Amino acid sequence: MTDQRIGILGSGDVAKALGRGFAKHGREVKLGTRTPEKLRTWSAETEGTVSVGSFSDAASFGDVVVLAVLGAAAEDVLELAGSENVAGKLVLDTTNPLDFSGDGPPGLLFGGTDSSGERVQAALPDAHVVKCFNTVSNAQMVDPEFEGETPPMMICGDDDDAKARTEAILTEFGWPGALDVGPIESSRYLEALVPLWVRIGANLDTWKHAFAVAR
Ligand SMILES: NC(=O)c1ccc[n+]([C@@H]2O[C@H](COP(=O)([O-])OP(=O)(O)OC[C@H]3O[C@@H](n4cnc5c(N)ncnc54)[C@H](OP(=O)(O)O)[C@@H]3O)[C@@H](O)[C@H]2O)c1
Question: Can you say whether residue 92 is alpha, beta or left, with left for phi > 0 and alpha for psi between -120 and 50 degrees?
């Protein structure tokens, strides 16, 4: 199987959901965090299918590297992971630069003319970054279940082969493929959907929703 080893940078809900999901779909998985000891119990619960190490351990381990950390910390985490450890690799960027500083639902720390996806690609010039999974709940990332039809996952990135490999993963995970919305610059618009996604979820009282294109 290609893309057999998956390194996931992160220890939160997304990292855990994708970690379990990739393992369930037959991959070898390593999660990376600043404090591996905090995931010992969780790792044991995966019955050894998901191992844990540092950010650089996980980055070196993966044929594919998933970035699943707080948006505001993404560039710091990549510094710790080491750009040399992801050179030439597919990097799935799940991050959103959400701004939680206000009283209400989050906004964006930056956007419109910039994005986390572009910053990640700039920090990893030799990697092939694909924005993926950022517009859906962690609970829906693997084997999604919607009341209606499952929409394709919106992705973007600069490398066609990297996007094809991403679509293969999505198909294996139960998505009806990918909706390619263009180069990594389109992360500006995928990330901007997320504050809207949160507001819609709050109004509809659901976190199992996703955007679909009607035509
Ligand atoms: N939650 C969802 O359902 C969902 C859905 C779609 C997209 N996303 C996006 O996916 C990303 C991950 O979300 P999440 O909810 O799983 O986790 P999160 O709470 O946003 O992030 C936790 C991770 O961020 C790292 N981190 C936080 N502050 C840091 C700092 N100052 N320096 C280095 N690392 C730091 C933590 O590192 P340590 O492990 O070292 O503590 C941890 O691995 C976010 O960008 C989010 O917007 C989330």
Answer: beta
